[in-house]
Amino acid sequence: MSEMLILAHRRDVFRFTARFLGYTLLAVLLAVWSGPIVLVLITSIKSNQDFLAGPFSIPSHPTFQPYIDVWNSLGFSGLLANSFLYATAGSALAVILALVPAFALSRMEVPGKTFIFGLILTGLMLPQQTVLIPLYDTLRTLHLLDTKIGLIIVHAAYGMPAQILILRGFMTSIPREIEKAAYVEGATDFQVFYKIILPLSLPGVVVGFTLNFIAIWKEFVFGLVLLNSEQNFPVTVGMLKLNSDRYMAVFNLPAAGLVISQIPIIVLFILTYRKIASGNFAGAVKG
Amino acid sequence: MTTSPRSGESPGFFAFAREHTFVTIFGILMPLAVFAVFVGYPILFTIYLSLFEWNGMTPDKTFVGLENYRHMIGDSHFQIALINNFKWLAVTLAFPVLAGLLIAYALRNRILPAAALVRTIIFFPVTMSLISVGLMFLLILNPLFGAFDTVLRSVGLGFLVTEWFGNYKVAIYTLAIVSGWAFTGMPMIFYYAGLGDVPKETFDAARIEGAGHWRMLTKVAIPQLRPVTAVVVMLTLFESLRAFDLVAVMTKGAPFGYTNVLGYIVYLESFWNTRFGYGAAISVAILAVSALMALIILKKLMKGAFDV
User: Fold this and answer.
1) How far apart are CA A214 and CA A268, in angstroms?
2) CB contacts < 8 A (A, B)
3) Fewer Cβ neighbours under 10 Å: the N or C end of chain B?
4) Which CATH superfamily is A65-286 part of?
């Protein structure tokens, strides 16, 4: 009896220790990964005097003035509109380009399949800096340098490989019986693709589009090199100005700018988080 | 449509094209054309250009043979940048990849409470642009008003405080760790998904045999996660070789070029110094290093990861 009690007691101690360790670990992870973000949020609503009171001071007079100031001086309305255009049009084009290839690679014995996969991997992993010069040169020849269309086309082309993999992953999971029946009825490839596979792949399209949207929103190198005029800049290139003495004198302006740049992604993140973080796209990459 | 689309055992291209015209045009030829214009041609043009001297403006280029490469090998900026890329890779493998694996393991085995919260906060920075991440850490690591130094001093680690971007020995690691902070969510999500695919019985069997977490992790989880690790290492490798954004926003290569990475000196040499031929030669070096490392990973780790 007493032995059992001791055992039970030991188990409780063990459980308590494990729990304690778990919560300590949780606290560390929260501090490291959400601490910086919380600090930026707090800094962004500080007045100049509050800022001088130190990084951890609680704002005594919370104000939205930094948001208004940075919005106007950096021209955020234009930057956000540009980024939104690049991300939407670029991702839509990338998905459209990728749909039929994904269909072919998921259900057919395409000749040269291995070669095509090799190309997809090359396209996925190509360091962008290595193709900057030829892209710059090509766009200049086509008179697309420093144009919105030019950047959209480049984003679409470099988004396509990942979209093929993601959509192929989704399409592979669609059972073949449905389309077999359609083929027996005399349907063409196009009809099977358009009437059966495409509607069933819509969740994949949503995930692919979202990931591509975020990727273009984050993208910086192409925007930096292929654009010159400020009226074409995406958010990332426009925000580069924040790292200057003018803005870094007091941190509330850059902090507010950071928050503004991230709000569209937060909205998208909330809308689609479950689909993306469930690891579906990780599965898609594994095939 | 006489045969089912799956029946042919690798038919010739023309037989396939006759039977599947729509798929051939939009599923094979169109993406191939896109690849040719945006991947194939740029790579070939970069290699070609690396043999020339060109200011990027005039139509005439001067052929210089391997002179750009000869110059590159002796260029101390190139050497520092190359070594920095490898330092960056080492930090990325040691910090975000390892942390991602451990966090995913802790989440799957319920060592960590609040799994959904942890996954959200660690994945969130993955959705931030590196420009935002860089600006954020410029604020936090600022020597005058930064929060990080204040924290270090308050826990008695004030002696560690340094100029995180000014100290030439430390600066590149600062950048790599900041990039790791933003990247950890990626390996975490991959490992989390991978651990979900491991049959529960495998872990249960090990637990019944009395295996602790250390043995479960090293003897069960890591071997089972090999294909995931291959994908993650591949991603990490290219993330490290692509490093650019953080350098551009945080240090611009300062102090004295000690935080330059290959991608950034390609940009500097081509678009600031207008030495496009030399920039192309460095690009070829990046391509060569990427291809070589990719080949090694494919050989060592990749078996079965991409089921082609």
Assistant:
1) 9
2) 299
3) C
4) MetI-like (1.10.3720.10)
Assess if residue B31 is contained within a domain: yes
8-state DSSP, A244: S
Tally of domains in chain B: 2
In sequence order, which residues have a C-beta less than 8 Å from that of residue B56 and are 6 or more positions away?
A133, A136, A137, B270, B271, B274, B276
B140 and B42 co-located in one domain: no
The first and second tokens of residue B77, run together, are 């900026």
> CA-CA distance, B237 to B68, in Å (whole number)?
26
Q: Mind giving me the DSSP string for B205-266?
A: HHHHTT--HHHIIIIIIHHHTHHHHHHHHHHHHHHHHT--HHIIIIITT-STTTT--HHHHH
Q: Residue B305: list chain A partners with CB under 8 A.
A: 286
The two tokens of residue B139 are 């604020």
Distance CA(A111)–CA(B15), nearest Å, equals 10
Asked, for residue B72, whether it belongs to a domain, the answer is no
Instruction: Please indicate, yes or no, whether residues B59 and B90 belong to a single structural domain of this protein.
Output: no
The pLDDT tens digits of the residues spanning A9-35 come to 777 777 778 788 889 999 999 999 999
Which residues of chain B does A239 touch, with a Cβ-Cβ cutoff of 8 Å? Answer: 131-132, 135
Same domain? B60 vs B156: no
Whether B38 is covered by a domain: the verdict is yes
Other beta carbons less than 10 A from residue A247's beta carbon: 20
Report A:177-236 residues touching B (Cβ under 8 A): 180, 183, 186-190, 193, 214, 217-221, 224-225, 235-236
| Per-residue pLDDT at A276 | 63
pLDDT value at position B213? 86
Q: Can you tell me the distance from the alpha carbon of A44 to that of A247, in angstroms, rounded to the nearest whole number? A: 13
Q: What is the pLDDT of residues B185-223, one digit of tens each?
A: 999 999 999 999 888 888 888 888 888 888 888 888 998
Domain that holds residue B205: 78-300
| Residue A1 distance to chain B (closest CA, Å) | 25
Question: Considering only alpha carbons, which residue of chain B is nearest residue A281?
Answer: B190
- ipTM of the shown complex: 0.88
Q: Is residue B223 part of a domain?
A: yes
Task: Looking at the complex, report in whole angstroms how far the Cα of residue A101 sits from the nearest Cα belonging to chain B.
Answer: 4
pLDDT (average), residues A259-278: 81
Quick check: A115 contacting B, CB < 8 Å?
no
